[in-house]
Amino acid sequence: MRLLRKGKVKEAYEVSADELEFVFTDQISVFDKIIPSLIPHKGETLCRTSAHWFKVVEALGIKTHFLRVVSGNRMRVRRVHVIPEYDRIEYSTRNFLIPLEVIARYYVAGSLHDRVKAGRVEAEELGYPKGHVPAYGEELPHPFVEVTTKLEKVDRELTRDEAQRIAKLRDEEYQELVETVLRIDHRLNADVRKRGLVHVDGKKEFAYDAERELMLVDTFGTADEDRFWDLAAFEKGEHVELSKEFVRQFYRRTGYHRTLMEARAAKRPEPEIPALPPDVVKEVSDLYVSLYERLTGERFR
Fold first, then answer.
1. CATH number, domain containing residue 29
2. What average pLDDT score do residues 107-115 get?
3. Which residues, 6 or more positions from 56, have their beta carbon under 8 angstroms from its beta carbon?
4. Which end of the chain is more exposed for a tag (fewer CB within 10 A), N or C?
C-alpha cells in the first residue's frame, strides 16, 4: 500500500481507487502540536471506538465512509478526494472531503469557556439572557454549533458565510450538515448518559460521495474528537475529564498553553511542546482504554 497522507495521529494508505486504509497511531496532539510521547493502546482504542459509532450511525440511516476494521488499529474506508485549494471546489464537485470541521457544544468548557471569559463570545450568542455570566461546566440553553477549517495548518474559526464560501455549500446543504451533526449527537448523548458519561462537545467531518450525498467521514465519538465527563462526579459539581482534554489541562497547568497562545497572537516562533512525563503517559493510556470500554460496553482485552 502507498502512504497518501500522514496526519497528526492517523495515516491514510491507498488500497485501491475506491478504498483507503486508516492506521491509527499511538501519537497524540494538542493545540495543533504533536507531542513527542507515544500513548500505548491509544490508536487501537480510537479505531475500535470509531467503528462502534459508525455502526450506530448507519443504523440511523446516515451514510458513512466506514467499511470494516482490518485489525486492532487499522480500518478500511471509502475513498474521497482531498482538495486543499478552495478555488478548485465548485458547487457541483462530487466525491470530495468537505474542508470543514463541525463542532457541537453542549456545555461551557474548553476553548468556549476561554472565549467567554475573554469577552470574545457573548452570553446572548449562546442563548443565555443578556448580562448572564456562564460558569465553567454550565449546560448551554441549546446546542452551540461552530465550524472551523479542516485542511489548514492551524484550525481557524469560520462564520457561516465563510464556511459556505470555502466549501461551496448552498444554504440547504449547510443546514443539512448541521442537522446531521445534531441528529447523530442526539443518539450519542443518550447512549453515553446510560453509561455514566456526559458528552460535553465533539467534532465531526463530512464528505460528498459520487452522487453529492452527504457522508460522515474520519472519526468521531472518541477521546480525541470529543470531550466527556464522568456523570456521577458532574452531578456533584465536579468536572472529571475523560478525554484528550485531560492532556490539554496538563499543558495549561504547566504554562505551555499560555506561552503558545501568546506566541501565536504576536506571530512569534512557536515554542516546541515538551514530552509528557512517564507517569502522565500511563494515566493517559489508562484513560483511553477505560473510556473505550465505557463508550462501547466492550472489554478492551
1. 3.30.200.20
2. 93
3. 187, 188, 191
4. C
